[in-house]
Amino acid sequence: MLATLSVWWICVTTSPARYKCLPNIQNCPNIPVFLVLSVCPMGGGATRLYSALTQTLSSSSSRPLPLPQSHLERQGSPVCPPDPLVLLRQCEEALRDRPPRFHRKFIHPSHGDSAPSSPIRVMQWNILAQALGEGVDSFVQCPLEALSWPQRKYLILEEILTYRPHILCLQEVDHYYDTFQPVLAGLGYSSNFCPKPWSPCLDVEGNNGPDGCALFFDQSRFELLDSMSIRLSAMLIPTNQVAVVTMLRCRITGRRMCVAVTHLKARSGWERVRSSQGSDLLRHVQNFIKKCPGGPTGASGTDADTPLLICGDFNAIPTEDVYRCFALSPLGLDSAYKKLSRDGLTEPEYTTWKIRPTGECCSTLDYIWYTQNKLSVEAVLDMPTEEQIGPNRLPSYNYPSDHLSLVCDFSFKEED
What residue stretches are annotated with the Endonuclease/exonuclease/phosphatase domain (predicted)? Predict the structure, then answer.
């Protein structure tokens, strides 16, 4: 019997310093890939978590790389996952020597109606690319030991397993093939990943490949209708930022839902680029909804009758143009995390809090946008306090990223 899970990734390169990992190129046009050189085993030692998943993953596929999305859906009924609570306990056991995790609770906005019996849980999270965290991000108050992958991978998986979202939207994913895809596939998730064309991770020695956006969904709750990956443009010029857009059908209600995940251009001075990227994403989403089959009559739908979720690290505070672009969109979008405020109109004080050589940064950059006439926000996970985060801010021994996860429960509104 196998004692550990063996996962493999394919190496490609134009020079030893430039390309390390083959991206999901069939979904990401305009991304250069040149020469397959070798197949290399996943780094790191055996773990209890991977051992627990070995039997499930080995029985589902004998291939070392994930199957294409279309093949996963053609296999028929959803996979039967192992108990995620058991895996969560194993993560907690692996992390028993670290400080306790943040205690966060769900806030339930008052609707005057009873809570739905089957809400849809959505998680948005920039998990911090491993190569960037250890390399160029320079978190001066965070010990290097806290940034090591053997520690961080358990913290990230613990966070996901704690909240068990039906839809999981991640940014800065540079361990998709060797960690997140196989582990979450073993839990019954299907996924799509699109790496950045020129990921900064590739400039870090010993990197694990390019980072990008990944969208996972629970196959027991949703059926895949269509999916695409996008290289975003700004003022008609292709950029280094990407998005994944997916059309799903809820297995309980039969209703379809469009979900997108993105990560816009970072840093001050790039506000116009972010605004243009946001407009480009909205245009792609509208076109995708219109052409995607699976509407109520089986024909293509319209953006007016399809619920929409757009999750991402926008790298933009609420006063920026790209925020206003989404808030004033004809798609009727609203930001779910405003529900935490007393008036329902104000974003949280922060979704990221870090200290770099240039100083301390406490900002709201991450959002879950939803169509307010089609979806109701039933619950919102609150933010940890400044005291919980601690004086050294994020990341830390008890939290693996400089961005906080956003988690919301949604329900479909009654159709007219």
Answer: 123-403
Contacts of residues 345-352 at CB distance under 8 Å and 24 or more positions apart, as own/partner, are 347/318, 348/383, 349/383, 350/383, 350/404, 351/383, 351/403, 351/404, 351/406, 352/126, 352/394, 352/402, 352/403, 352/404
Cα atoms in the Cβ-side hemisphere of radius 13 Å centred on 244? 27
Statement: residue 41 has pLDDT above 70? no
The answer to which of 25-34, 261-270, 355-364, 398-407 has the lowest mean pLDDT is: 25-34
Please say whether the dihedral angle defined by the alpha carbons of residues 190, 248, 168 and 32, taken in this order, is positive or negative: positive
392 vs 402: CA distance, rounded Å: 11
Q: Given this model, what pLDDT does residue 297 score?
A: 45
Helix (H), strand (E) at residue 312: strand 308-313
Tell me the per-residue pLDDT of 235-274, one tens digit each, with 9 for 90 and over. 999 999 999 999 999 999 999 999 999 999 999 999 999 9
The average pLDDT across 39-45 equals 32
Nearest C-alpha neighbor of 291 from the set 300, 303, 278: 300
- Per-chain mean pLDDT for the chain: 82
Per cent of the chain over pLDDT 70 is 76
Question: How far is it, in rounded angstroms, from Cα 66 to Cα 72?
Answer: 9
DSSP 8-state code for residue 413: P
Task: Copy the structure tokens of residue 111.
Answer: 């609707």
Other CB atoms within a 10 A radius of the CB of residue 152 amount to: 21
Task: Give residue 337's domain range.
Answer: 84-412
Q: Note the pTM of the prediction, 2 decimals.
A: 0.81
Cα–Cα distance, 136 to 211 (Å, whole number): 14
* Model confidence at 56: pLDDT above 90: no
Residue 24 lies in a domain: no
Q: How many CB atoms lie within 10 A of CB 207?
A: 23
Is 281 within a domain?
yes
* Block residue for tokens 């913290």: 155
Is the separation of the CB atoms in 49 and 157 below 8 Å? yes
In a domain, 172, yes or no: yes
Confirm whether 30 is domain-assigned. Answer: no
CA distance 263 to 388: 27
Asked, as a colleague might, if the bond just before 395 is cis with ω within 30 of 0, I would say: yes
CATH code, domain with 223: 3.60.10.10
Angstrom distances, CA of residue 205 to CA of 20, 135, 136, 137: 10, 8, 11, 14
